[in-house]
Specification:
The chain is mainly beta. It has one helix at about 170-180; strands at about 1-5, 5-10, 20-25, 30-35, 40-50, 60-65, 70-75, 80, 85, 90, 105, 110-115, 120, 125-130, 135, 140, 145-150. It is found in: Secreted.
Length: about 190
């Protein structure tokens, strides 16, 4: 499954509740890509695995790439029992829509491979861990408290696909130009 080039927001303009479940992935979901989207003005934005007994990191594989997370409080994503490749995302929280808690939640049984993401100083904590595992490289982290995780010294898995990494310093410009609705290139 692929969720791509969508603008997902909560609040008055969209008449959508802003608290929970903007993009949740449960069960033994496999080979899901969430890319080039805008997530904004939401609290519990993206859940991967609803409880510690839900799913397995052997089968649940998710990619979260080239997205904007703007004024979202937490779960950007929050993962349980999953292999999640998180790369080239832009994280910002400046308007106080919600009290920003953390960006990426590394929970029970999760293996997170985070590469070349950009966290502004509006983000309180870039990574928050609770019985999960993370490897990070190439990120720009200006968050207030940085990471509160023990980090691996090598990636926990190799993504089974080819991809090109942007330098983290170029992520904000690239995702602003290409994320959200109406940004697909037309090839004739």
């Amino acid at each position: 499954m692929d969720l791509s080039h969508v603008h997902l927001a909560g609040g008055e303009l969209t008449k959508w509740q802003t608290y929970d479940g903007l993009c949740d992935i449960k069960g033994d979901s496999a080979a899901i890509t969430i890319s080039h989207n805008i997530f904004e003005n939401h609290d519990k934005t993206m859940l991967i695995g609803s409880r510690d007994s839900d799913g397995s990191s052997e089968t649940r594989t998710i990619t979260v790439a080239h997205n904007i997370f703007d004024n979202c409080a937490q779960r950007l994503p929050m993962a349980r029992n999953a292999k999640v490749h998180v790369y080239n995302n832009f994280y910002d929280s400046k308007d106080g829509f919600y009290d920003q808690k953390y960006a990426i939640g590394v929970r029970f049984g999760s293996l997170i491979y985070a590469q070349n993401n950009y966290f502004t100083n509006g983000v309180k904590i870039s990574y928050k861990c609770n019985k999960g595992t993370i490897f990070e490289s190439g990120n720009i982290d200006l968050s207030k408290k940085g990471s509160v995780c023990e980090k691996l010294t090598k990636p926990p898995f190799e993504p089974p696909y080819k991809f090109e990494l942007l330098e983290a310093s170029n992520v904000q410009k690239e995702v602003n130009q290409n994320a959200g609705t109406g940004k697909l290139a037309v090839i004739k």
